Amino acid sequence: MAKTTRQTQKWLLAAVHLGSLLPLVLFGLDAALGRLGFNPIETALHRSGRTAVAILLLSLTVTPIIKIFNLPMAIRLRKPLGLYAALYAGLHFAAFVVWDFGLNFGLIWLEFTQKPFLWVGLGALVILAVLAATSTRFWKKKLRSGWRRLHRTVYLAAGLALVHYLLAVKGDLLTLQGEYTRPLLAAGALLLLMVLRVPAVQQIFQRNRR
Predict the structure, then answer these.
(1) pTM above the 0.85 mark?
(2) For 201, how many CA atoms within 13 A lie in the half-sphere containing its CB?
(3) For 122-179, what is each residue's pLDDT tens digit?
(4) Which backbone phi and psi does 172 adopt, to 5 degrees?
(5) What is the domain extent for residue 36?
(6) For residues 118, 123, 126 and 129, what is the CA-based torsion angle, rounded to 10 degrees?
(7) Total structural domains within the chain
(8) Burial code of 67-89, b = ≥16 C-beta within 10 A, e = fewer?
């Protein structure tokens, strides 16, 4: 039984790594073949941002899956998913400051002053970077109980990322004039994941499972 569990974990981890790296591979392939469209920078920003949000939400599904379906083996999926979310968030920011603005900090600062949603996205990136940097056993042992509290801020990072996503869409959010389908679906998914963290809700699902 233990051997089967370890093998299942290995297959799940392999699927996580392959699935998380696939968007990066496809982007590289499209770049090499000149298929990034008339605005490759915008394509890079959109793809990296969407991928970061998607993987971040996937990382947040691990705990509800463990609690509701009693699948402790899934715990090993949370860390790599979190790290990949931080990676794509970093690539998203790098595409903005390096590729789009060529590290011209004067123009970058001007852009931040004119578009407040950039500060929101930067806040999400900083949190994800801190969580990635402290994801090792060394920091878990050093911070002790504070480590768990620190890593619960991943929900704050997800909330900030989705606010950034919504505000970055060109259009009118109040009238939904714009491409708001994806960010709204992502926001709905985050809300559902937060509800599923409530112990009473988990108990309902556990009773139905039995």
Answers:
(1) yes
(2) 9
(3) 999 999 999 999 999 999 999 988 999 999 999 999 999 999 999 998 877 777 777 8
(4) -125, 110
(5) 2-209
(6) -90
(7) 1
(8) bbeeeeebeebbbbbbbbbbbbb
